[in-house]
Amino acid sequence: xxxxxxxxxxxxxxxxxxxxxxxxxxxxxxxxxxxxxxxxxxxxxxxxxxxxxxxxxxxxxxxxxxxxxxxxxxxxxxxxxxxxxxxxxxxxxxxxxxxxxxxxxxxxxxxxxxxxxxxxxxxxxxxxxxxxxxxxxxxxxxxxxxxxxxxxxxxxxxxxxxxxxxxxxxxxxxxxxxxxxxxxxxxxxxxxxxxxxxxxxxxxxxxxxxxxxxxxxxxxxxxxxxxxxxxxxxxxxxxxxxxxxxxxxxxxxxxxxxxxxxxxxxxxxxxxxxxxxxxxxxxxxxxxxxxxxxxxxxxxxxxxxxxxxxxxxxxxxxxxxxxxxxxxxxxxxxxxxxxxxxxxxxxxxxxxxxxxxxxxxxxxxxxxxxxxxxxxxxxxxxxxxxxxxxxxxxxxxxxxxxxxxx
Length: 406
Known about the structure:
Layout: H1 2-10, H2 12-28, H3 30-39, H4 44-48, H5 50-62, H6 71-92, H7 109-119, H8 138-170, H9 189-197, H10 200-223, H11 245-252, H12 258-271, H13 280-304, H14 316-342, H15 346-349, H16 353-401
Helix pairs in contact: 2-5, 3-5, 3-7, 5-6, 6-12, 6-13, 8-10, 12-13, 13-14, 14-16
């Protein structure tokens, strides 16, 4: 029996799986630490538990080299996002479990349920603090499941169609994605490739997060039945409302990590900088702070996973995000300048439907030009590396089959 167990441990595949689970297990230690901490009243006892809340995610971040390429980046990024989320909720926002979730202060199942949901709520969605009351019938849960499965199938179909269609129609070669400059306004093939791939990063992020969110929602709503369908809204806003860089990030883009970063930003503006709430200076600082923190998190993750990265570019994500902040700031300045020059009052500003349509159309065009300009220098090296990875085996086979001349 002992010999068989030793052989099992020596199994190469099993050892690799166990080796890769180490950082994940370290990250999951944050769950009991969070549950215990949120039961404590804000104060000294909570601060004593701070090391236990951040130690697991920090070790996970440092150990992601055990994971395969892609998974290492995901867990490293998740670890940092979680540290912001947990420390913000427990120590800045000072979350507590409402008395309605317990009976006479006992550590009941309802308190545990509410604590776990708070641990997994970086978006700051409204939480039900009591265990599910089966507000939804089996038929409604089944409908939710089929709707999510349909969403997954549709997105997979669109992904395959766009990927294969782009390759078939454009027939891009790796050499065409050599790092370009920011500005290229000639009507040539390079402009066509820029147009086709300027939004690929956004589409891939949308696709991956939407499918992942649907799978996790099915698991918690339909299988475990711990959540209700209405507790899993879409990650994204209305794309039709995007007519500026600010609305792209503030209205449409997912807000998984930004709520906790905004809490940290408000702590600095109101306690250290002495800025008043919702004034222009605070809004500008908060926008800069979120973009800067997000860029720093991306840079730290890229540095930790540099050995498996397809491109040696640690600061590319940070530069891209800061350029987006600069684009949003430029929008504010131009908007104020135009309104001042034309002396538009509030009545005239909203009186004409034609003006609103033209303004939105110009805004959409501006968003396209902006990403057309700044995305290729950031993303083309990754696209080139991806194409070379895809085409290398094919080229090797062609060379092996080529007859040798006497």
